[in-house]
Amino acid sequence: VSTTINYNWTALRMGAIRFARQQDNFSLAPK
C-alpha cells in the first residue's frame, strides 16, 4: 500500500513541477 502512495505522490509532484515549468515558460515568453 505504501508503494502505491509513494508512486501517486511522486506522479503528483512531477505533474506539479511540469505545470509550474509550463507557467514559467508562458510568463517568460515574449508577448
Q: How is the topology of this model organized?
A:
Layout: H1 2-28
Describe the structure.
The structure is a single chain. The chain is mainly alpha-helical and 31 residues long. The protein has one helix and no strands. It is rod-shaped, with a radius of gyration of 14 Å. It starts with a helix and ends with a helix. The relative contact order is 0.11.
- The percent range for helix content is over 70%
Give the class from helix and strand content and strand pairing. mainly alpha
The profile of the biggest β sheet is: none
Please tell me the overall pLDDT: 87
- Rounded radius of gyration (Å): 14 Å
The fraction of residues in strands falls at under 5%
Which word captures the global form?
rod-shaped
User: Treating each run of at least 4 consecutive H or I residues as one helix, how many helices?
Assistant: 1
List keywords for this structure.
31 residues, 1 helix, 87% helix, mainly alpha
Tell me briefly what this model is.
The protein has 31 residues and is mostly helical. It is built from one helix and no strands.
